[in-house]
Structure formats: C-alpha cells, structure tokens
Amino acid sequence: MSRLGRILVVDDEANARTALAELLRDEGYEVETAADAFKALGKYESFAPHIVVTDLKMPGMDGIELVKKIRATDEVTGIIVMTAFGAVQSAIEAMRAGAAEYLTKPLNFDELLVVLAKVLENQAVRREARQLRQRVRERVAPDNIVGISPPMQRVFEVVDQVAPSRATVLITGESGTGKELVANAIHQRSPRASGPFIKLHCAALAESLLESELFGHEKGSFTGAMTRKDGRFQLADGGTLFLDEIGEISPSIQVKLLRFLQEHEFERVGGTQTIRVDVRVIAATNRNLVEEVAKGRFREDLFYRLNVVALEMPPLRDRKSDIPALAKFFLDRYVKDNSKAVDGCASETMELLMAYDWPGNVRELENAIERAVVRPACPRSPARRCATSSAMRSSRPSRRPAGRPRRRRRCSGSASARSSTACTSTTRPPGPTSMSSAS
Ligand SMILES: Nc1ncnc2c1ncn2[C@@H]1O[C@H](COP(=O)(O)OP(=O)(O)OP(=O)(O)O)[C@@H](O)[C@H]1O
Ligand SMILES: [Mg+2]
Fold first, then answer.
1. What gap in Å lies between CA 230 and CA 59, rounded to an integer?
2. Gap from CA of 101 to ligand 2 centroid (Å)
3. pLDDT single digits (tens) 385-408
4. Structural domain boundaries of the chain?
5. Crossing angle for the helix pair 323-337 and 361-374, nearest 10 degrees?
C-alpha cells in the first residue's frame, strides 16, 4: 500500500484523467480512475480511497450528485472537485454538499499537491480526535477496583503480571464479581493503554450479527448491509478487545475466533481481503468452560488458546472483608452523584451487610447501596432492606418530633435481616437511633 494515501480520480475526459493519475502515482499516491460517477461509486467501495478528486461536469450523474452520494454514508473520505474556470457557482454547491476543496481547470498540479496534503492532514486529525473521544468514554481507572481481601490481592498480582504481555486472558467467575472491571484494569496497566479498549457482549447478538460485529462486513454481504463496516477487531487495533460471555458463541464463530487467535488475521463477512490487526483478546464467562468442553459445546483448542492466563474472580461471600470498603466506596459515589447528605453506615447496617451472602456479588451490593441512597423509603429485597437509609448515618437532622416513638418496618425472609435490630423492632422509644445527625 502507498505511504501517502489512496486517490480515486473521476473525469470523463480520458486524457486529463490518465495524465492526472500518472502524475499522482509519480508523487507516491496509489491511484485508481473512473470515467464517470457510476463507475466511481463502484470503485469507491472496493478501493476505499482516502480522497476522491472529481470533475463536476460529467454526463449521466454529475460531480455534485457524486459528492452527495458519498457523503450519505461516509463523513471521512476527502472530496476535491475540479471545475472549469468561470463555473465557480457549481463548485460552491459541491462544497455545500460536502466537498472539502475545489480547484479550477486547467489544474495547477503544485496547487493540487498542497490541497491533497491539507485534506489528508485534516483527516488524520479528525481520526485521532475520534479515537481520543472513544478512549475517554471507555476509560475506567484501575483505582476504581476495591479489594483488600487476600483473594482480591491475588487477583491484582495476576493483573500486574499479565498486563505487560500480549497473552490472552480468560476471566471466569459468577455474575457481578467484577470481571469486566478487571479486564479494563489489565488494559489500563498494559503498554497498549493508550489504544482502544473495545467491548463486545457475545450473548447479546444473534449469530450472524455477532459475526459481522466481530469481523465487519462488506456492502451487500447480507440484507441490510448498506455500507462496508469495520468490525470490533479492527476498531480494537493497537488495543484490547474484551469478549464478554464468550461461552455463548456458536461453533462457527468459535472456528473464526480460533483462527484469529492463531494467525491474527481475518476477513470481513462477504469479503476476500485478509486483514491483519494487533489486538489483545481478553475473554470472560460465568460458565464453566471445562464442563462446556467436556459436553462438546465449546472447542477444546479454542479453550486452550483463550485460557493462556486464567483469572478466577472470587465471589463476594468468599471475601467478606472487602464489604466495608466496597460499601464506603459505593456510598461515597452515590451520595456524590445524587447530591445527598449521608456520611456513613451505622454499625448495625454493616453487620447486616456482612451477614448476607450476596448471590449477585458486588453488583448486588452496589445496587443495594444506590437504592438506599436514592430511595431510602423504598426497600424491596432483603439485601436492599439491609442497606436502607434507616440504618445509614445521614447528616440531615431527623425530622421526627422529639418524644414521638418511631415506627419501623418489619423485615422477614433473610437471615441477615432477622439477625439485626436495625430491621426487627416495630416501635422504638425515643432516644439515639441509627439516623444520626452529623455535626
Ligand atoms: N472490586 C470492585 N470494586 C469496585 N466496584 C466493583 C468491584 N467489582 C465489581 N464492581 C462493580 O460491580 C458492577 C459489576 O461488575 P462487572 O460488570 O465488572 O461484573 P461482571 O463479573 O463482569 O458481571 P457479569 O458476569 O454479570 O457481566 C460494576 O458496576 C462494577 O463497577
Ligand atoms: Mg460482565
């Protein structure tokens, strides 16, 4: 491929077209030509030019129409129009339709080279800005992971060991244990941290859509494929691709993924061009993949390719010493997000949080605390009751008139709820309660 870029020259005058193409090739550009706008649209799909240089006056479809057709699906490709001296009005119309520049004929070749360089530079700046916006959106600081328990300390050790390499990592663990958070931390601590972190939830898409999301597709490769589209592998070039729920992918996608992991290359759906990218893959699942392999539902060779480094996220019930720090972390976050005034957790609440088994793991704890902050009077599940604000220390003074006994809800069902005074009594005498005023 040319270092400078690909240019499609569109002109119905054969001599002008060939001469311009020759000059541009001599300058180091990769050039294709088209004798009219229809042929140009055909070549544009397969050649994917960085810049289209087109005449405005052509039989059939004119240059302005061509600009509109390209702009309907593509904001990036630069378009330069050539117009006869004295026909500037149509050039202005082309600029309104999305052309980047216009030049008058006969062309001044030096001027054309300057304009080409400028348009290519603008494209590079726009591409970089888009990548930067993407990175800012995706970024989660590793500091956002809370964990002082020995099992989490071991997780952090593995994260630090594997981050510098390109090794594929398979993260397993129950739902809500933090698999995605850890995948992100590996990326952020890796040498590819300045590259993109792209996620794909494999269970959320039908097989054909998943294939095109992963590998991209060519225009017309299936009904509804109106334009060529890059897949997540290409978007993740230079960075990390996180494949969530990998245990759900079909046998045919398993084969394609295996090929990528072995050869780092693939073709778009409906395409023949082989694309090579530099992508680190991190996969996650809450299924037991060893069992899936034994049952013949998951390819053994793919399992070994994914499981180069295995990282098992411990369930929250096996690391309860993390609960106080997690509770504080989420309380601070949601108090700040909701501009509320709560300054901590009462000790009886903490007992409840510690006694509960959290089948939904950290996500359930996070949700319970968010609910307690946002809707303190609306407890739903036993876990949420554990964290209702009746037991959270609020810095807002209690509105209960002095001397009136406080009515409390009766909790039932959960061992954690039964075990604490915070949720059992129906009426309490006045006096210090778990709702305490801050200074
Ligand atoms: N150690 C942790 N510190 C802080 N927040 C955490 C921690 N672990 C999980 N979370 C939070 O809990 C929620 C669930 O985490 P995450 O999405 O990473 O879990 P998961 O294992 O990928 O779940 P699933 O299997 O359902 O996709 C997220 O909001 C995440 O920020
Ligand atoms: Mg997840």
1. 33
2. 46
3. 544 444 455 444 444 434 344 433
4. 6-135, 139-314, 318-428
5. 40
